[in-house]
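Key idea: predict the complex, not the pieces.
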Amino acid sequence: MLDIVLIGINHKTAPIELRECLAFSEEDMLNAFSVFKNNPVIMELMLFSTCNRVELLMTTPNPDKAIQTAKQYLSDSKQMALKQFENSLYIHQGDDAIRHIFRVASSLDSLIVGEPQILGQIKDAYRRATSQKTSGVILNRLLHKTFFIAKRVRHETGIGDHAVSISYAAIELAKKIFGSLEGKEILLIGAGEMAELAVENLIRNRSGNIFVANRTFENALKLADKFKGQAIRFEEISGAIERVDIIISSTGAKDLIIHQDQVKKILRKRKNRPLFFIDIAVPRDIDPEINRLSNAYVYDIDDLKGVIEENIEDRKREAVKAERMIDEAVIKFRQWHENLDIVPTIIDLRKKLDTIAQNEVKKTFKSLHHVSESDYQAIYRMTHAIINKILHDPTLFLKQNGYHGLNSASIDFTRKLFRLDEE
Amino acid sequence: MNFINSVIIFFYLMGTATYLFFMFIQKKSWEKTGQYFLTAGFVIHTTALVYGFISSGHIPARNLHETLSVAGWAVVCAFLILQYWFNLKILGIYAAPLASLIMVVSFLVPKTSVHDPEIFKSFWLFLHILFIFLGEASFALACGVGVLYLLQERAIKSKRRGFFFHRLPSLDLLDTIGYVCILAGFTLMTIGLITGFVYAKTIWGKFWSADPKEIWSIITWLLYAALLHGRLMIGWRGKRSAVMAIIGFAVILFTFLGVNFLLEGHHEAFTRW
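Result:
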C-alpha cells in the first residue's frame, strides 16, 4: 500500500530568507517532475510553492526512503547543504499529511487565517501535476477531497467573513453606512499606497465620480488620470465635500485639514445626506469631532486597525469549527485509503457477491415449496462455488499486479466497478 | 373563539422564538421558519376576523379585546408586506413579539360588548377602522426600524460595533424603510381619519365633535406631517428621523390607550372595558 507523505517549510518554520532560497520557479518545478517521474520510490508527486510555503506531497511504498530522496533533491537542486534547512522542514505522514493539506487549502495554516488565495494556488499546483501526469489515484482523490473540504469550510464557517485589511475594512464600513456603493462619489485628498488601494477597491464596487485633491496640483492631475477621475485644487475641497459621499484623506499635513464647523455647514447644504471620512493620515487630517455630527462618520487609521483586530479574532473562533470539519474529512479519507489494499478489496468483493447470491437463492426458494432443506444446502453450496470460480482470475490479477502494492489504480478501478464504497 | 385565539397566539409566539434564535445564530433556516410561523398565524387570524365579520355583520372591533386583535393583525400584515418588499428579515425580532404581546393582552381583557350594535353596521366604519389600524401598524414598524437605526448608528459611531453591527443592515436601508413606513402610515391614517369624519357625520350628524381621541389623532397626524415635511424640505433624516418615529409611536400609543382610560369621549365605549 502506498503511504502519503508531505514534506515542506512554511512561514511558521522558516524566515523569508530561507523560503526564498527554497522556492520553486515554474522551470524548477518542471525539472523536479522530470527527475521524479522515473523514481521507483516516489509514485505520485505534487509540488507547491508560494511566498509563504514550499511543499512536496508524495505517495510512496517506502516513506523513509522517499523523505530522504526529497531532502536530497532539495539540497542538490537549490545548492544548499541539507544542514542549513533541515531543521525548518516539517514532515507529515498518513493522517497528518492528509490533515495538513486540508488545513492549508482551507486557509487555516495561512499567515492571515481565512485568506482566499491559497485555494487557487493549490488548484494551480494540482493542475501542473496532472499535466505532467505525476498525480495518480491517491493524489487525485486527495486533492478533490481537499477542494471539497476547503469550499465547505468557506461556506459553512465565517472564516473568510469580514475584512482583515485596512482598505477592505473601510469598504465594509462604507457598505454599512450607504448600503450599496454604486454611484457613490469619492474625494481623495493627498496620496499614498493605502489610500489608493482603498480607492481601487471602491471602484471595484462600482463607485461613481472620483475627485483628487493635492497641495501640488500636478500630483493631483497624475492621480486623477490613474483613476480616470477629476483633479481639483486644494482650495476647492469644501465645495467637493458638498457633493461627494466618501472622503479618503492621506496627506502629510501637520494640522487638521477639515474641521467640524466646516462640515456642519456642508451637511446642512447637502440636506444631511451621510458623509463618511476615512482618515489614513498620521498625524490626522480630519477633525475627530466630526464624528459627533449626525450623519457624518469618521474613522481614522487606529479605528480601522481596531476593526481588523476584532475581525481576526472572529476568524480564529470560526477556525475551531473548521478544524472539526477537517477531522471528519480526514477520517473518511483514511477509510478509503486503507481499503485501497488488496485484502480488504477482495473481502469486500466476495461479501458483495455472496450477499447477492444469498438473496437471490432465498427469493427463488420462496416460490419453490417442494424443495427440501438438503436441496437448499446443495444449491447454496453451488452458488458459492460459482462465486469462487468467477473471482479466481480477478483475484490473481490483483495479487500479481500488486507487486509491493503499486496497483492502486486497478484496486481503485475494481472498487468503482463493483461499487464497493458506498457514498 | 378562545381556542382560535390561543392558536394564533401560539403561532406568533413560535415566530418570536424562532426570530430570536435567528438573531443569535444567523442561520437562514431560522428566519424562514419564523416567517412561516407568522404567515400561518396571520392566515388563521385573517380567517377568524373574516368569520367574525360575516357572523356579526360588522367589523369585529366593539371592545378593547377585539380592537387589540385587529391591531395585532395589522402589525403582522404590515410586517409581512414590508419584509416581502425590502427583505428586512431582522425586523421580525420586533414585529413578532409586538404582535404576540398585543394578542396576549387582547386575550386577557374582558370581552363585554357595547350595547348598541346598530351603529357598527356602516361601510364607513369598516374603512375607518381598517385604514387607521393599518396606518398605526406602519407607524409601529417605523418605530421598530428607528430603534434598529439607532442601534446600528451607535455601533458605527462608537467604533466598537459589537453584537448588532453585522446583524443589522446598512443605515441607508434602515433610513429608507423607516421613511417608507412613515409615508405609508401617513397615507393610510389620512384616509382613516377622513372616513372616520364621514362616519361621524352619518352617526352623530357632525364631522367634528372635539372628542379627545379626535384631538389627539389630529395631533399625531400633524406630528407625522411635520416629520415628512422636515425630511423633504430640510433633510431630516438619519438619527433625527429615527427618534421622531419613536416619539410618534409613543404619541400613538397614548392616543390609542391613554386617551381611552384617562379622558372621556365617544370612542370610549368600544375601547374601554
